[in-house]
Amino acid sequence: MEAPLAMWGNLFEAVEAKGIGHVRGGLTPGLAFLTERSYGKGAIVMLGAMPAGDEGELLLRHVVDHYAEAAGVTMRTDVSEGTIVAPRRYGNDLLWVIVNMNGRGGTVTLPTTGNDLLTGARLDRGPISVEPFGYRVIQLLSVQQYVRRVLR
Protein backbone atom coordinates (compact mmCIF):
# COMPACT_ATOMS: atom_id res chain seq x y z
CA MET A 1 0.00 0.00 0.00
CA GLU A 2 1.31 3.45 -0.82
CA ALA A 3 0.17 6.99 0.04
CA PRO A 4 1.65 10.51 0.03
CA LEU A 5 2.57 12.01 3.40
CA ALA A 6 1.33 15.47 4.36
CA MET A 7 0.90 17.98 7.21
CA TRP A 8 3.24 17.22 10.10
CA GLY A 9 6.06 14.73 9.97
CA ASN A 10 8.65 12.85 11.97
CA LEU A 11 10.65 10.00 10.55
CA PHE A 12 12.25 7.21 12.54
CA GLU A 13 15.35 5.08 12.32
CA ALA A 14 13.81 1.90 13.66
CA VAL A 15 16.33 0.62 16.22
CA GLU A 16 14.30 -1.18 18.91
CA ALA A 17 11.07 -0.95 16.93
CA LYS A 18 10.16 -2.50 13.60
CA GLY A 19 9.51 -0.15 10.70
CA ILE A 20 6.04 -0.83 9.26
CA GLY A 21 5.70 2.10 6.83
CA HIS A 22 8.71 3.51 5.00
CA VAL A 23 9.44 6.59 2.92
CA ARG A 24 10.17 5.93 -0.73
CA GLY A 25 12.27 8.54 -2.51
CA GLY A 26 12.97 12.13 -1.56
CA LEU A 27 15.69 13.11 0.90
CA THR A 28 14.96 10.34 3.42
CA PRO A 29 14.32 7.08 1.56
CA GLY A 30 14.06 4.04 3.80
CA LEU A 31 13.25 5.91 7.02
CA ALA A 32 10.07 4.80 8.78
CA PHE A 33 7.01 6.99 9.29
CA LEU A 34 5.17 4.12 11.04
CA THR A 35 6.78 1.82 13.61
CA GLU A 36 5.71 -0.97 15.94
CA ARG A 37 7.37 -2.17 19.13
CA SER A 38 6.13 -5.07 21.23
CA TYR A 39 5.18 -4.08 24.76
CA GLY A 40 3.76 -6.58 27.24
CA LYS A 41 0.88 -8.36 25.54
CA GLY A 42 0.45 -5.56 23.01
CA ALA A 43 2.37 -3.10 20.91
CA ILE A 44 3.29 0.56 20.80
CA VAL A 45 2.58 1.95 17.34
CA MET A 46 4.03 5.33 16.39
CA LEU A 47 2.70 7.29 13.42
CA GLY A 48 5.24 9.97 12.57
CA ALA A 49 3.66 11.43 9.43
CA MET A 50 0.09 11.66 8.19
CA PRO A 51 -0.80 9.64 5.09
CA ALA A 52 -2.87 11.91 2.82
CA GLY A 53 -5.60 11.64 0.22
CA ASP A 54 -7.81 8.67 -0.53
CA GLU A 55 -4.80 6.36 -0.45
CA GLY A 56 -3.84 7.72 2.98
CA GLU A 57 -7.33 7.20 4.35
CA LEU A 58 -7.29 3.62 3.09
CA LEU A 59 -3.84 3.03 4.60
CA LEU A 60 -4.91 4.42 7.99
CA ARG A 61 -8.08 2.30 7.97
CA HIS A 62 -5.95 -0.75 7.23
CA VAL A 63 -3.58 0.07 10.12
CA VAL A 64 -6.42 0.71 12.60
CA ASP A 65 -8.26 -2.45 11.50
CA HIS A 66 -5.09 -4.52 11.85
CA TYR A 67 -4.32 -3.36 15.39
CA ALA A 68 -7.98 -3.43 16.51
CA GLU A 69 -8.18 -7.06 15.40
CA ALA A 70 -4.87 -7.88 17.10
CA ALA A 71 -6.16 -6.30 20.33
CA GLY A 72 -9.41 -8.27 20.20
CA VAL A 73 -11.69 -5.26 19.75
CA THR A 74 -15.21 -6.64 19.33
CA MET A 75 -17.36 -3.51 19.33
CA ARG A 76 -16.81 -0.66 16.91
CA THR A 77 -18.82 2.31 15.74
CA ASP A 78 -18.59 5.21 13.38
CA VAL A 79 -18.70 8.63 14.96
CA SER A 80 -18.73 12.06 13.34
CA GLU A 81 -15.81 14.44 13.63
CA GLY A 82 -15.74 16.32 16.92
CA THR A 83 -17.76 13.72 18.83
CA ILE A 84 -16.34 11.05 21.14
CA VAL A 85 -17.67 7.78 22.53
CA ALA A 86 -16.41 6.57 25.91
CA PRO A 87 -17.59 2.99 26.56
CA ARG A 88 -18.00 2.06 30.23
CA ARG A 89 -19.09 -1.06 32.09
CA TYR A 90 -21.53 -0.70 34.97
CA GLY A 91 -22.15 -4.11 36.51
CA ASN A 92 -23.37 -6.25 33.61
CA ASP A 93 -24.39 -3.22 31.58
CA LEU A 94 -22.44 -1.56 28.81
CA LEU A 95 -22.82 2.23 28.74
CA TRP A 96 -21.71 4.65 26.07
CA VAL A 97 -21.06 8.21 27.17
CA ILE A 98 -21.24 10.28 23.98
CA VAL A 99 -20.03 13.90 23.96
CA ASN A 100 -19.96 16.44 21.13
CA MET A 101 -16.90 18.61 21.64
CA ASN A 102 -16.72 20.82 18.54
CA GLY A 103 -20.08 22.60 18.84
CA ARG A 104 -21.34 21.31 15.49
CA GLY A 105 -23.37 18.42 16.83
CA GLY A 106 -22.72 14.92 15.69
CA THR A 107 -23.85 11.39 15.08
CA VAL A 108 -22.93 7.97 16.41
CA THR A 109 -24.14 4.61 15.16
CA LEU A 110 -25.41 2.27 17.87
CA PRO A 111 -24.45 -1.36 17.19
CA THR A 112 -27.52 -2.62 19.04
CA THR A 113 -30.69 -1.34 20.70
CA GLY A 114 -30.29 0.75 23.83
CA ASN A 115 -31.87 3.06 26.35
CA ASP A 116 -31.11 6.76 26.71
CA LEU A 117 -30.52 7.02 30.45
CA LEU A 118 -31.08 10.78 30.48
CA THR A 119 -34.46 10.79 28.68
CA GLY A 120 -35.66 7.22 29.24
CA ALA A 121 -36.20 6.78 25.48
CA ARG A 122 -35.68 3.37 23.91
CA LEU A 123 -33.32 3.61 20.93
CA ASP A 124 -33.13 1.38 17.88
CA ARG A 125 -29.89 0.12 16.43
CA GLY A 126 -28.46 2.68 14.00
CA PRO A 127 -27.48 6.35 13.95
CA ILE A 128 -28.39 8.75 16.75
CA SER A 129 -27.66 12.46 16.96
CA VAL A 130 -25.96 14.57 19.61
CA GLU A 131 -26.68 18.28 20.02
CA PRO A 132 -23.85 20.85 19.70
CA PHE A 133 -21.76 20.53 22.88
CA GLY A 134 -24.34 17.98 24.01
CA TYR A 135 -23.95 14.61 25.63
CA ARG A 136 -25.88 11.36 25.87
CA VAL A 137 -25.57 8.33 28.11
CA ILE A 138 -26.77 5.18 26.38
CA GLN A 139 -27.25 1.81 28.05
CA LEU A 140 -26.65 -0.91 25.45
CA LEU A 141 -27.45 -4.60 25.76
CA SER A 142 -25.72 -6.24 28.70
CA VAL A 143 -22.17 -7.34 27.98
CA GLN A 144 -23.22 -11.01 28.12
CA GLN A 145 -26.12 -10.42 25.72
CA TYR A 146 -23.87 -8.55 23.32
CA VAL A 147 -21.12 -11.20 23.38
CA ARG A 148 -23.69 -13.97 22.79
CA ARG A 149 -25.07 -12.06 19.80
CA VAL A 150 -21.59 -11.39 18.33
CA LEU A 151 -20.49 -15.01 18.71
CA ARG A 152 -23.52 -16.43 16.85
Automatic annotation (TrEMBL):
Gene3D superfamilies: 3.40.50.880, Golgi alpha-mannosidase II
Domain Beta-galactosidase C-terminal, residue spans: 82-139
Stretches that traverse the bilayer: none
GO molecular function: beta-galactosidase activity
Source taxon at top rank: Bacteria
One BP term from GO: galactose metabolic process
Protein name, as recorded: Beta-galactosidase GanA
Organism annotation: Paenibacillus phyllosphaerae
Lineage: Bacteria, Bacillati, Bacillota, Bacilli, Bacillales
